[in-house]
Amino acid sequence: MDVKTHQFDVVVIGAGGAGMMAALYASRGAKTAVISKLYPTRSHTGTAQGGIGAALANLDEDHWEWHAFDTVKGGDYLTDQNAAETLAREAIDAVIELELMGLPFDRNPDGTISQRRFGGHTNNQTKKPVRRACHAADRTGHMILQTLYQNCIKEKVTFFDEYQAIDLITNNGKACGVAAVCIDDGEIHVFHAKAICFATGGWGRLWETTSNAHSLTGDGPALVWRAGLPLQDMEFFQFHPTGLYPVGLLITEAVRGEGGVLINDKGERFMERYAPTIKDLASRDVVARSIYLEVQAGRGIGGKRYVHLDVRPETVNRYLAEAGEDRRVDADYILSKLPDITDFCHTYLGIDPTKSPIPIQPTAHYGMGGIPTDLNAAVLSSGAGTVVPGLYAAGEVACVSVHGANRLGTNSLTDLIVFGRKAGKAMADYARQADFVPLPTNPAGKIIAEIERIRKSSGKTKPYMIRQEMQKVMMDHVSVFREAPGLQKALDTVRELKSRYQDDLAVDDRGMRFNTDLLEAWELGCMLDLAEITTLSAMERKESRGGHSREDYPKRDDVNFLVHTMAYPEKGGIRIAHDRAVDLSLGYQPAERVY
Amino acid sequence: MKVKFRIRRFNPEVDKKPYWGEYTLDNVEPTDRILELLHRVKWEQDGTLTLRRSCAHGVCGSDAVRINGVNKLACKVLVKTLDLKDGGQVQVEPILGLPVVKDLVVDFEPFFDHYRTVMPYFMPATPRPGDGRERRQSPEDRARFDDTTKCILCACCTTSCPSFWASGEYVGPAAIVNAHRFIFDSRDGATQERLNILSEESGVWRCRTIFNCTPACPREIEVTRAIGEVKLAIQRNGR
Ligand SMILES: Cc1cc2nc3c(=O)[nH]c(=O)nc-3n(C[C@H](O)[C@H](O)[C@H](O)COP(=O)(O)OP(=O)(O)OC[C@H]3O[C@@H](n4cnc5c(N)ncnc54)[C@H](O)[C@@H]3O)c2cc1C
Ligand code: SF4
Ligand code: SF4
Ligand code: FES
Fold first, then answer.
1. Are B138 and A39 in contact (CB < 8 Å)?
2. Total-model pTM
3. Is the CB of B55 inside 8 Å of chain A's CB atoms?
4. Which atom of ligand 3 is nearest to the CA of B213?
5. How far apart are the first and last CA of chain B?
């Protein structure tokens, strides 16, 4: 097969918030290209609803230190405190930069950026919720994605739209290129680069019920893994408490930020029991577990696997009055703050959320783990902090680790902008002083062989069968609650699916043009790799922390597990080590987490 | 229930011309989205069926197709909204006016080219505030262009527009919507340049106010109204 070769100083893989932010900065100092399997505006950042967190203090007293502390506590103390500091300090300037780029935030009467409450964001003195989430209605991510793409057009950033990265090319431990398939004609291209940044987003499609797009299949972490590099904290995958039942699509926490409450079959506002101080606005892991427990105790609505999210004005006002607050809401206010949520409820369930409660269930949402990086987005090859020259990662795919064991709402968008910008700057600097590392001979030989194997595969198992089985077993055993036997079952199943994927795959489309049958099958391979790593990482963490709840080890164990998990590829297998220390430089000592 | 799918197929590698493929699905629920059912056809019956999709809930703009002759996002159409009887038929074909790449996938380049011509980016009217903070904008000024900020560039409007079908030179409603988003932003200073671009041959005057675009928009943007406001701004020489 013919291979086309390109040369750029910097190549960014992914055109979501993190990728475009990195590209904007990199392209100011280096010849840069962005490769994306989706048109940039189709990226999942566009679906983010509720807001981007920054201590602007436009409405309430607020400080970056409070934001940093909330992030550490929210992450159940697995968050690296130097990373939380960077995030919280730089968030302020990053959000203002977005506004200066043209982002149409909602406004306060004085013309400043509007902010609202969000789970886990507090005034550290009173412990009460603080308005920190900067937003544009309930389509903040859409506005970020559009604004960044618009600025990329303005600054003439080079895009390779609908090119899918399928291999990371290294030479002697240094990153030197990416192999990608041009989806339109199926040709393989090699991008030779000094610096490469992964910004490929999440991998929620490992699970049956998810808020994530079909495209979120974890290609980035899989490529890095296959290049012989470790992945960090993969057992920490966030289940968002409020996914629409039964489809799983996300109902933003902003619904609760605006006053919505969770109600069980008996009409109880059950979060009062689990988190007496901030109730429905506790951290996501806490709320998701509470819902599970309610359902397990038979208090799901009509005994089913869901509860209600009630944002009807009369309900909201009743609880506002109970809390002694002056604020009152009406249906128009709810509509103006949550137009898209209203539309989702209408389209998918035929209900009006100002008139009926919304049925919700926890949904697989966000990967806290991923490709380990330092504070400048440089990828690490070990828990000791050794950097891989020329390799960077930013956004959801990266594990800085700023989110620790559980991410706070609005902190991902902040992460994209803060660390995307850092990656862009770092790559431009690196490209200025580094030379191109030569490509190995026949750089795409191995991946072409793998692609051709899939294209010609003529077994009996269609990719969707394997995918559905994987998604089900991950949902049953590697979701909100976990325990040893279930994890073992998941591991066995995933391994068996992997061997079927190798030996018995059936792909129908053997053509070159827009062969999504082939590419979906290839993506499934990535997901199977990540499912195995996630499950093994979960087995080896014998404690409960943040998004990882072990029924057989219900307590947090700071003596043995206040440390990051590193999964290393070794001899065709996986070695789990707990060898990356947690940074405690802000001095926040692990304390019991009460909300 | 049982549903029959009639899908416009074309693979330039093997087909001389497009044809209709027919597929029957059992166990269809009234709440199933057309996207899920297209996936079932692809996954269970014929892996060569090709379409674009990502978010599956109407916000990424990937899966605009013609369903029973009307432009829709496949992920936003539920079976129950189609008034089908058991065994009823759904027809799905690519959106019109853009070249077909394969099956339901069209070439979006001409669409994005038009978008890029209207300067779809912020050109600040004033320098950065000296205090290092955000530019201020009143809630009323912000509301002025709220509607057009919702656009997801799905092309449902442009590819339902008879003027666009008649001439691909026409920038089309989506590009005008995106120009509107900046023209009516009080912070922006490039109104006149954009109005000049849109008053050219390929610009707003090609719109004959046929109103196809507005009902086609899955984001419920008042497209024709936005175009009207831009026309008026051109006549007035400013917003
Ligand atoms: C429904 C929903 C609502 C959310 N709401 C919020 C919120 O209110 N606040 C908040 O902070 N966070 C929120 N999040 C989380 C946040 O939106 C995401 O974590 C974040 O947008 C991820 O951005 P990203 O830039 O890392 O990746 P994405 O935006 O997912 O982009 C990934 C990019 O990588 C590309 N790509 C992937 N694989 C390949 C490949 N093999 N080759 C080439 N390109 C590839 C894709 O084309 C895409 O351009 C939400 C998430 C969801 C799902
Ligand atoms: S109103 Fe104008 S843009 Fe819309 S469909 Fe009609 S001619 Fe096209
Ligand atoms: S205006 Fe509406 S229909 Fe047209 S591209 Fe934008 S979202 Fe799609
Ligand atoms: S798949 Fe995203 S809009 Fe339909």
1. no
2. 0.96
3. yes
4. 3
5. 53
Treating both helix axes as pointing N-terminal to C-terminal, what angle do B109-117 and B172-183 enclose, rounded to 10 degrees? 30
Q: What is the 3-state secondary structure (H, E, C) of A144-176?
A: HHHHHHHHHHHCCCEEEECEEEEEEEEECCEEE
The pLDDT tens digits for A501-555 are 999 999 999 999 999 999 999 999 999 999 999 999 999 999 999 999 999 999 9
Task: Please count the residues of chain B.
Answer: 239
ipTM: 0.97
Angle at A287 between CA A286 and CA A291, to 5 degrees: 120
Q: Which of B46, B61, B121 sits opposite A41 (nearest CB)?
A: B61
Q: Give which of A161, A139, A154 is closest to A42, Cα–Cα.
A: A161
Q: Which amino acid is at A119?
A: G
Nearest C-alpha in B relative to A506: B47
The first and second tokens of residue A587, run together, are: 């001095």
Nearest to A175 by CA among A393, A402, A466: A393
A248-284 pLDDT, tens digit each: 899 988 899 889 999 999 999 999 999 998 899 888 8
> How far apart, in Å, are the Cα atoms of A530 and each of A196, A231, A454, A470?
21, 9, 19, 11
Ligand 2 cavity residues, CB under 6 Å: B 161, 163, 173, 207-213, 223-224, 227
* Residue A387 to residue A381: CA distance in whole angstroms: 6
Q: What does each C-alpha distance from A575 to A236, A382, A537, A578 come to in angstroms?
A: 17, 12, 9, 10
Interface probe for A, chosen from B48, B60, B73, B187 (most Cβ of A below 10 Å), is: B60
- In whole angstroms, what is the distance from residue A104 CA to residue A98 CA? 9
Cα–Cα distance measured from residue A375 to residue A82, given in angstroms and rounded to the nearest whole number = 8
For residues A65-88, average pLDDT: 97
Residues B202, B206: Cα–Cα separation, whole Å: 7
Show Cβ contacts of residue A453 under 8 Å, excluding neighbours closer than 6 positions. none
**Helices marked H in A516-573 — which ranges?**
516-540, 558-561
How many whole angstroms separate alpha carbon B170 and alpha carbon B207? 8
Asked whether the beta carbons of residue B14 and residue A102 sit closer than 8 angstroms, the reply is: no
